Automatic annotation (TrEMBL):
<dbReference type="InterPro" id="IPR003593">
    <property type="entry name" value="AAA+_ATPase"/>
</dbReference>
<feature type="transmembrane region" description="Helical">
    <location>
        <begin position="21"/>
        <end position="41"/>
    </location>
</feature>
<dbReference type="GO" id="GO:0005524">
    <property type="term" value="F:ATP binding"/>
</dbReference>
<dbReference type="Pfam" id="PF00664">
    <property type="entry name" value="ABC_membrane"/>
</dbReference>
<keyword id="KW-0547">Nucleotide-binding</keyword>
<feature type="transmembrane region" description="Helical">
    <location>
        <begin position="142"/>
        <end position="168"/>
    </location>
</feature>
<protein>
    <submittedName>
        <fullName>ABC transporter ATP-binding protein/permease</fullName>
    </submittedName>
</protein>
<dbReference type="InterPro" id="IPR011527">
    <property type="entry name" value="ABC1_TM_dom"/>
</dbReference>
<feature type="transmembrane region" description="Helical">
    <location>
        <begin position="242"/>
        <end position="263"/>
    </location>
</feature>
<feature type="domain" description="ABC transporter">
    <location>
        <begin position="330"/>
        <end position="544"/>
    </location>
</feature>
<dbReference type="Pfam" id="PF00005">
    <property type="entry name" value="ABC_tran"/>
</dbReference>
<keyword id="KW-0472">Membrane</keyword>
<keyword id="KW-1133">Transmembrane helix</keyword>
<keyword id="KW-0067">ATP-binding</keyword>
<feature type="domain" description="ABC transmembrane type-1">
    <location>
        <begin position="21"/>
        <end position="298"/>
    </location>
</feature>
<dbReference type="InterPro" id="IPR039421">
    <property type="entry name" value="Type_1_exporter"/>
</dbReference>
<feature type="transmembrane region" description="Helical">
    <location>
        <begin position="53"/>
        <end position="74"/>
    </location>
</feature>
Amino acid sequence: MFRKRLRLSVKLKKTDILLQIIILLTSYGIKLVFPYIFKYILDNINKIGIGDIPRYILIIVGFSLVAHTYIYLASYWNQKYCNRITSQYMDDIVTKISRINIPDYEKMSKSKILNLLNYDISVIYTWININISIPFNFIQVIVIGGILLSINKTMAFISFVLIPIYYLGSYSNKNKMESLAREEREYADLLMDQIQDVVYKKTSIDLFSAWRFFRKKFNSVKGEWWDIVNRKHLYLLLTKEFPQLVSTITPFIILLLGANLVYKKDMTLGTLVMFIQYVAMIYSPLTELSNLRANVNSDIAAFERINEFLGYENRDSDYESFFKLNANPLNIKNSQVTTDDGTLLFNIENMNISENGLYIIRGDNGTGKTTLFNLISGVYFSEQIKGKRSDFEMKKEIMGNISYLYNPSILFNGTIEENIFLTDSEKDSQKIDKMEEMIDFFNAKDKNYCVKINPSNLSLGEQQKVFIIRTFLKSSSFVLLDEPSANLDYESKYLLRDFLNMEKKNRVILLISHDGIYEEIADEIYEIQNQNLRAVNKRKQNKQ
């Protein structure tokens, strides 16, 4: 009944599920012995002498220790299984992230993805419980129902009549619970945005004395989220209270009927106690199924979000159509570069790069320089280039061979060498030598220096050196540098200029920079002005 509503890509092996059910049923079978022990003691108390009591206590304690040890290990085994499946599912989400194309991923809510990995992933436990608990609890109900009928049919039927009340709450609140669950997840994403602002921007908030503003924003979203959570729990707890109501009423009814039978000597006191204990045991799986139903209503939104994300299909991109055999490294003419919503950034009448060298692109902030780099590298969809596909061409050999100093770049806890190579596989000795040469050239931190994040132990300038070395270590024939001298000191900027002057002989280097120190070594300068990109050879102008 649950599985029709909930579908996940989790592959649960039937043998694993069967093993879990067998283990749980074995532990449950041990529990069935305890009511019979109580019956035996109560019905034979007149036959148990004072000297026998210590022996009985030792037997009961010993049996209880063995039984509960097995029950504990069975529960632990089940929890390990759930954790293993959840871990696999987290890996599925991370794998999906790696396979979504960059343009699509850039438009996704990162707070939502964080919640998928941190909060929504808990529904995997609900999914596993659906597959294990339904058959397990169904078997429990059948077994206990048979035991109760064998003891006393009248009291058994009275117990069974109250069962439908268990599910009254979960069905009556189903739609409201699902609606509130969806609202809760939407506000959870908004709250994650505010949490990240508070956690990661504390220093800036302090320096600008903006805590009042940020706390107001945080408390506003937090208040909405908690209001929805409280309303959801109002219905969730109401749903779960119906089984408790039945569990409270049933023992009194059974006790009244059973006490009358005991009084008439139609039933022993031990049998009555045993019956009441077994009744509690039949309501236990029913309660679990009812609670599972309530959890499903509460988790339905998370199931939908996870399935939607894992089922996401990349939009088609004709990025590969840019690359042609026998083409120049880059040739753009009669084209327009636009924003994602189609607003014109600038026109390109003719931008032809036919050989290795350093080519500078300059222009005011917001004119579209970085957008052009994102289009060349495939970070943005090619639909932001308006014009004939034959008017935007790149050399076939360049495809997949582009290095891009992209901002913000990645930095993680690890050595300088690990942060540069971004791999733990065996490294080529020539690349290691080249890395060490560049580290010495830029006076960067030693390759074995351990980088720390949050808080960082690298200055912004030292971080930028890592990014530059990483970019050029890739040995790409086409390099995009977006403000490479950002955060570099005066000396390091001139070191970078000298380095680029050497490297431009071996590759095409496109450079976005507001620093004029690179213009004297540029082979061509392009400028975006009045929504037009045009070539401006400053060196030739200076010579004239």
